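[job 4471] stage=fold_predict status=RUNNING
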Amino acid sequence: MLGEKLISIRISVVWRIFLILAFVGPFKSFCQKDFFQPSTSENSGRIKGVIVSEAVVGTAITIGLDYLWYRKFPHSRFHLFNDNAEWLNMDKVGHATTAYNIAAIQSDIFHWAGVKAVPAAAIGTFTALGFMTMIEILDGRSAKWGFSIGDMLANLSGCLLYQGQQWLWNEQRIGLKFSYHYTLYAQYYPQELGANWSERIIKDYNGQTYWLSCNIASFLPSRSNFPNWINATIGYGAEGMIGARNNPKELNGKSIPDFGRYRQFYFSFDTDLFRVQGVSEFADLLLKVNRTLKLPFPALEWNGEQGAKMHLLYY
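[job 4471] inference complete, writing structure tokens
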């Protein structure tokens, strides 16, 4: 669903901003050299700062969404909405990716504050699930949308991917990442798919690709000399979509070409640059953006319309 996807991407951006706020805002020790160094034991000052920051930011986001987004549309009694046939399920993969990354970022924040790995991961997982559930509840009270069980299952799958790996390996060997490239489809329906580049990153599912990125060295014997920052990745995308369920024949008096709607599957390589050893804690924090965003690499694509084809550089 478009509205939910907008919110889903906004959450991802907000939580990256929140990561900075949680680190910088509440603490006077920002200039200390060890500020970005995770605490080896529970640091009450950091924990309190994180909790206060989360309470403030979480409240602001909830009120902001309700006022700036849902206020535009009529409210209704809480109801369900089945959007499983929309956008060739790109929105569902987006929900899972957003939930996974919120869990990972939140866990990192509490680990930085000195919370042990097991409870930090649990806090991250439950925070992500709670936050995404709140969005669905707001949708459930909107006459334009509704509470989507499909979205909630996607949210759960993202959270379980994170928490399951913590249970199984006590580390993240498989991540969910995002990439975007410009497409021609938005020009035919800019109100739905975006009128400019920044809007199209959020709205145009045709240009979005979601990646299941697997760290190769994590699955090899510990004595292996294979670089620990190289990943193999499987991607999912879709193209030919002008509308959510089907493509209109014309819009605003202009005919729309007959685009075939089809799914795309990719194989490519990727990096986990935050695994590189010997960098500063601040550099490591910056490199963790690569945990969410896939870098451009050659890619092999298969789709039902054109079969297999090779991209020399795909993003």
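[job 4471] summary: The two ends are 23 Å apart (CA to CA).
[job 4471] exit 0
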